[in-house]
# Entry
Amino acid sequence: MWKTILRRILIMIPEVIILSILVFLLAKAMPGDPFTGSINPKADPQQIHHLMKINGLYDPWYQQYWHWVVHLFHGNLGNSYQYQEPVTRLISGRAANTLWLALFTMILTYAFALPMGVYAGRHEGKLPDTIIRFYTYVTYCIPFFVILVLGIWIFGYVFGWFPTTGSISSSASGWLSTIGSRFYHILLPGILGALFGTVNIVQYLRSEVIDAKSSDYVRTARSKGVPSKDIYRHHIFRNSLLPIAAFAGYSITGLLNGSIFTETVFSYPGMGLLFVNSISYRDYTVITALVLIYGILNLLGTLLSDIILSIVDPRIRIE
Amino acid sequence: MTTTSNFLSIKDVSTAFKIDGQFYDAISHIDLQVQRDEILAIVGESGCGKSTLATTIMGLHDPHETKISGEIDFEGTDLLQLDDAGYNQFRGAKIGMIFQDPLSALNPLKRVEDQISEVMDYHTDLTKEEKHDRVLQLLDEVGIVNPKRTAHQFPHELSGGMRQRVIIAIAIACKPDLIIADEPTTALDVTIQAQILDVLRAIQKENHAGIILITHDLGVVAETADRVAVMYAGQIVEQGTAEQIFNTPEHPYTRSLLRSMPQRDNENDDLYVIKGNVPSLQKMPSTGDRFAPRIPWVPADAHEANPTMHEVTPGHEVRCTCYKHFKFPDEKGSVTA
# Structure
């Protein structure tokens, strides 16, 4: 078991190296530079040329990359051109915000999707199943940002139930009101994300339950005289949840990626919003750092999925 | 238990499946009796309704997709009148079933021990330790070499033969009076087959159980069965003792089946092939001899309009009168239509 995990982690090392080179090159390949228009619109091209030079932006890419890697190992991701602040501080201040939102959304998503998927599968073809399937298709068809904008408009402006921007209210003081205010701010984006992110889990789980219902081992269980509710509990649920559990690790990273939409629409100060802003300012140092972090998180997510699967499925256990 | 003749008697049982909103008979008007201490073999080619009959006795069909009529009298109870909870008192306890495919019939996520003791959870008051002991004893009985080790393993860690033994252990855990074995040896190689059949016979002797052995393998039938029922297209076409069926087969289908078996003494000859196919459920004719299209050289007036069972000798019954006129095309005196 530990051997498997160790092996998976070792495989990740070359993956991360290749990823980092790719990320670095792609950021460099973007047209534009971090200085034009950012100092003042009429800045002297000569001055920009000078700034580019002292920042090492004319060096060959491998030199720039090497510089970057050396600094990386010193825990230094460089300074943001836009904010004039160390990138590490910039990101660490926002990472927690993104993480809370992603975790909250994920818990809610599973809380909605698991009962729906199981119920739809168990009552296949009946009215509740039809309603659930219709619901998931509708949520699948509507672009997510449309939902977010509509949600803000209805629940934020028309009813005024939820805050529409930020991650914490400025009047919050004391730890209780801080936590409360933070939670209040992720409530609406979290609920919207969960309500409209169920389709994969529901559909997958539904078809797993339907498959399991007619499987041979369930027939064996019925021939033992096991009552139907126990068959669901002991045989169908666990076996159907297997692929869902395996998917969980990966879906965390999916949510992090999805946070780019949510944070932009809600002006929620997380990594997603930072990412979008950095791209429009060609803030290379921030972009490369963020893409690298997202990439590593994706790799970790698949690792987590593999670990979960090897725990829940005895067939995958490696002695 | 009442009288021996009432152990299991299947009377006029038909099972129809829903296809595109319409019900079609997969087995029609089956009459069968099974006694204690007896192995009744049901033979027939794929799609003739053997397995449907087995799952009908077990009550495993989805009530929304099937329509079952008739009467299955088991130790004085009509099983078909029971609701699901009532049926569960019989399934696993008094009737055990052995399934065809040992690869998929076990839950891949549960240890062997848990899958066997699950039957006892519902039908016995044994303590955890007693169940554990019983599991080891059962595994030993079905010929598992190292019961302790196997009990702790998952199905994917076992060979096909071992899995089939585990399935048998599940079926016999509560010492059922009736065991339905649906092609128990089909997925296994020949040496394992013989061992599995030995296990079945030993269990039967010990528990005085009645066994319904469903198979398409006539070799297995010859080796184990006391009585044989031959099925074709959802009907029983001939039944009798194993001797009667093998020595004096009457129905054209039984005779064709036996003739299509490889024989040691005529190894140079080509095997006999029954031409044509079993008609699909939707295309099954409602009257007439269902086997007639596959023996076209027999004149039409040799068949009955509504074939019934005729007793040839005591205990030996044949459907339709055509058997009196049937000869293979290469036999002397054969008539062609």
Q: What stands out?
A: The mean pLDDT of chain A is 83. The CA atoms of residues 109 and 194 of chain A lie 4 Å apart.
